[in-house]
Amino acid sequence: MKHLFIIAFIVTGFAAKAQKVDSMFVHLYTDSLKKGTYNYINVDGLLADGKWLPLDSNHIEFKCSHGEFYGNQLWIDPAFTGDKINITTTLKSDRKQYKSFDMYLKKKKDDELLPLEQDILNHTKKKKKKDS
Known about the structure:
- The protein is of the alpha+beta class.
- The protein has one domain: Immunoglobulin-like.
- Helices cover 24% and strands 35% of the residues.
- The protein contains 2 helices and 9 strands.
- It has helices spanning 2-18, 117-131, and strands spanning 21-27, 38-40, 42-47, 52-55, 60-64, 68-70, 73-75, 84-91, 98-104.
- Strands 1-3-4 form a 3-stranded antiparallel β-sheet, with no helix packed on it. The protein has a 3-stranded antiparallel β-sheet with strand order 2-7-6, with no helix packed on it.
- Strand 8 and strand 9 form a beta hairpin.
- The longest helix is centred in the first third of the chain and has 17 residues, at 2-18.
- The protein is flat, with a radius of gyration of 23 Å.
- The termini are far apart.
C-alpha cells in the first residue's frame, strides 16, 4: 500500500508539471474592436509538454483602459470616443507572465450591403466565361 501511494504521488507530480503554462499568447480574431458589442479576446497557453490550453478568466486576469470584461469578452460602451483600448492579460498562477497591447476601435460603420447569393453566382459565371 505504501508503494502504491508513492507511485500515485509521483505520477500526480508529473501530471501537474505537464499542466504548467510556459508562455501565453493572444490570438485575436479581428484587427479592431467594435463598440456596443462583446469582443472575444482569445488567449492560449503553451504548456511545458508542448500542448496548447485555451485560457479563460479562470486562468487569466483581464484588465483594460476602457470597457468591461465579462470572462474573455470585452464590452465597449457605444458612446466611447477614444481611438484605442489597452488590454492586459495576466496569468493568475504566475503573475510575471502577462501581455499588454493596444487594440484600435473600428471606425467604419457596419452599414455596407453584402452581395446577394445571385450576385456572387453571376460574377462567378462571368469570370469563368472571361477566363475561357
